[in-house]
Amino acid sequence: MSLTQAWQQALDSLTAAHDHQSVHNAASGPLPSSNAYTLLTQYFEPAAPSECRFFDEKTEVFKLDTEASDALHALLGSGASMPSSSKIDLSSPNPALFALSHHYVDRCLEKLQEMAYEYGLTIRDASRASCSALSDDLPGALLKLSLWFRAWLSPYADTSIFSGTSDDRNRLSQSLQAYIRSLFDHTAAESLRSHLEQLVVDPEHLDLPTTFVAHLNIAGLATPAMILLTRVMHCEITRKVRAVVDAADVRPQDSVLPLESAARPVLQQWLDDEVKPRFAAIRQCLRADDAFPEAKQKVVDTESADEDAWKSRLDYQLDKALCLTRAGQLFDLVALYPESSAALEDLRLSLQNADQRLRVAKTFSESLHMRLLHPGAHTRDIIQMYVHLVRSLREMDPTGVVLSRVVSPLRRYLRARKDTVLVIVASMLGDDPDFTLLKDELERADQEEQQQEEQVETKRKRRPRRSLQTHAAASAGTNGGKRSHKRRGAHPRRAASSSYASDSDASSEEDWDDPSWVPKPVEAGSGYRMSTSKDIISMLTSIFDDRSGFIAALEKSMADQLVQVKGYKAMKEYRNNMILKKRFGEKNMGKCDVMLGDVTESRRVDSEVHQRRRQAAVPAPSTSAVEGMISKLHPLIVSRQFWPEPTIKPGTGAAAGPNAATAVAGGAGAPAGTPGSVAEFTLPPLFRHAQEEYGKTFCQTKAMRKLHWLNHLGTVELDVELDSGENISVECSLIQASTLEVISRCKGRTANAADAASAGGANVVTLTDVMEELNLQREKDARDALEFWVQAGLLKPVAGLADAFIVQPSLPVASVDEEHGGHEEAL
Question: Where is the Cullin family profile domain (predicted)?
Fold first, then answer.
């Protein structure tokens, strides 16, 4: 029934009642129905809750006094039943009630702004028409609003007079709430957010029905409150993650975890045990209004209509905050790997739920550029970080998206560094205990390949036998297919090592027969396929377009190690060479094979030379010292065409023209040294005669070949006896041993510095003496050799005389321990 029809029926009813009564009681006064309608309109006059005649402020329910009840009976007619509950027992509301309800709603809307002023919800200002006062005392204002709305909407309760006029009830309720929302400005929103934050953060359990939250729904503020509550919860989750993981904005109830510890289980338990129950309680209080269901607002849940959706959103916010916080720590986590595996596991699980791979990659790239990719960082540190990065990011993000976006700038930067190749080779073949990452990777890859080959061999042996005819027929029918399959399914590392294929080629090759192949992720960048190679060494070597320089560096590193072996024991170098041949191909490692062959050949030739000399005639007494030196001489004979010149050339190690046939001079079975650090020099007569005699015997063994001695590479093991009877054992280079020969010629070792000056320096050795005796061209070489014996305790600088040293008759007792420590450090 429309409003016009309701008014028309009401007027018809009043007119009929007037015609009926005019015949019998013309002078009885005003019409009863007209008087009743007027009385009820006055009774239902909207006012403050304490002044509303139809509202009981104590019980907060609708009421009708006796006069109003009689007027209602008169208006509706004597046939209408009127229970004490004031509910009209009719199948549908009387048209007069429609008119009365409409009149009541109109009066409420007319007095709406007046009541707002009376409640202090708006104030007048000269500069603005009105402004909200909700933010001044939000809980108090909400309490007033709730009581006000309950009073004005009480006639529409289920047991009240207007219970059947739902349209008027909705119009009044929506008008009241719309007016309050118009007063809800930015300041009021901030005030509500602050109160919600205090409610969320407060660890004490509050009785929510007694708080301001219970009045938000009836006031029409449930929807903005739900939005603000969600934001507050997200901010609190982010703060908690930063406090626990990064020690930022810590509160007394927070417990900070170490960087490498797993934080996600702790945070998830906190979210499930504290945040979700609190959020659910507040959310339920916002959505429900059992005391006054007719004023209930349909809350727009910003999370989802599903009851479990908001829980998933909170989980998502936790994982997102954890991703972004861990992203800022990722540089340190990668550097600490594998100790940081637990923290990286946090990031792996969070990335699965919160798709933040691009932001993590961006943050990590910025950290790399700021902390690593700059001229102040050593190439060794960059390579070390590279290996850690590849290992850790593969564990953290199996999709390879983060790795593909981070590794490309790092590869470009390494390509621009001049010493990258040398550092990579040194890390694979060197002996630095603090930098064995690539060596371990080389050995691990070799072990994996051997295991794969053993598995293939085991499967082949377990293959069931078939008859000869069947086998021949099968071979004839599928031989070509098998060959094609082998070419296409070849091992990626072998294919890359034999042809130096790029990582992208290897990845494409793997795709042919990979049963677990999946398409590229949506976030994959242009370098994604390049970074999916499982071989870290191949990833490093593939950054260089010219592999010849890398192979040359491998040869140089192998040569530097071989000239330092003792007793011709090069098993470690043999093993490294076998692994490198599998990696880079036998053809490319040909020179390394020759160098290793020289070690084996040198041992055989040296054994033959000493055997020939033992079979020769007994030497004369004058040559016994030379023979004793020869018996301790075990050189490494190298092929000059195959050994890198920077290794065998004396001086600074710079490349030069080819040398003659060479032999690394050494004593006591120790053909080793520091390559390229000392220029050429002349040996003392004892050492020189021993080399000449050894060379003569070598020529008898190897006709048409002659030795050229590389004295800058040899080392000697010496037992030095002092005048005091003390003995020291040292291992030194050949130039240091030659310097000791010069020192040993000094006389008067027991003299002090004053006697040395008066004796013309008989017990003093100078820098000039060493340079002249050994024909040295550089003062640095002589000074370094003298400094070695100063550290050993055999020499002492002369006070007031530069480059002059007194020969000590005994070792200083107070500094024996320090001298031995310094000697070991020098070695």
Answer: 537-789
Least confident of 106-120, 238-252, 378-392: 106-120
Q: What DSSP assignment string belongs to 717-761?
A: EEEEE-TTS-EEEEEEEHHHHHHHHHHHT---TT--HHHHHHTTS
For residues 533 and 496, give the distance between their C-alpha atoms in angstroms, rounded to a whole number: 11
Contacts 24+ apart (CB under 8 A), 35-39: 35/71, 35/74, 36/70, 36/71, 36/72, 36/73, 36/74, 36/75, 37/71, 37/75, 37/96, 37/99, 37/100, 39/67, 39/68, 39/71
pLDDT at 350: 93
**What's the one-letter identity of residue 422?**
L
pLDDT in tens, 526-546: 666 555 445 677 777 777 767
CB atoms within 10 A of CB 784: 16
Alpha helices, H only, 563-702: 571-584, 590-615, 624-631, 645-648, 685-701
Please, are residues 328 and 246 in contact by the beta-carbon 8 Å criterion? yes
Of 303, 240, 312, 319, give the one whose Cα is nearest residue 274. Answer: 240
β-bridge pairing 715-721 and 727-733: antiparallel
Could you give the domains of the chain?
3-183 (no CATH), 192-318 (no CATH), 356-442+492-511+525-545 (no CATH), 556-710 (no CATH), 719-826 (1.10.10.10)
Of 408, 424, 423, 586, nearest in space to 504 by CA: 408
pTM equals: 0.65
Q: Beta-strand (E) ranges in 155-314?
A: none
550 Cβ contact partners less than 8 Å away, ≥ 6 residues apart: 421, 424, 425, 541, 544
The C-alpha atoms of residue 218 and residue 212 are separated, in whole angstroms, by: 11
Give which of 791, 778, 629 is closest to 714, Cα–Cα. 629
Q: Which two three-digit tokens encode residue 826? A: 């020098």
Name, in order, each residue with C-beta under 8 angstroms of 354's C-beta and a sequence gap of 6 or more: 316, 319, 320, 322, 323
Q: What is the DSSP string of 190-227?
A: HHHHHHHHHHHH--SPP-GGGSGGGGTTTTT-HHHHHH
Q: In what order do the strands lie in the sheet with 804-807?
A: 764-766, 804-807, 795-797
- Run of H or E including 764: strand 764-766
Task: Name, in order, each residue with C-beta under 8 angstroms of 786's C-beta and a sequence gap of 6 or more.
Answer: 739, 765, 767, 770, 795, 805
Sole residue written with tokens 């190298």? 638
From CA 748, how far away is CA 723, in angstroms rounded?
10
Residue 447 amino acid letter: Q
The structure tokens 């850790």 sit at: 392
Residue 427's CB is within 10 A of a number of other CB atoms, namely 24
**What is the Cα–Cα distance from 226 to 303, expressed in whole angstroms?**
9
Whether residue 279 is predicted with pLDDT greater than 60 in this model: the reply is: yes
Q: Which of 594, 775, 598, 623 is nearest to 696 (CA)?
A: 623
From the CA atom positions of the chain, what is the Rg in Å? 49
297-310 confidence digits (pLDDT tens): 444 444 444 567 88
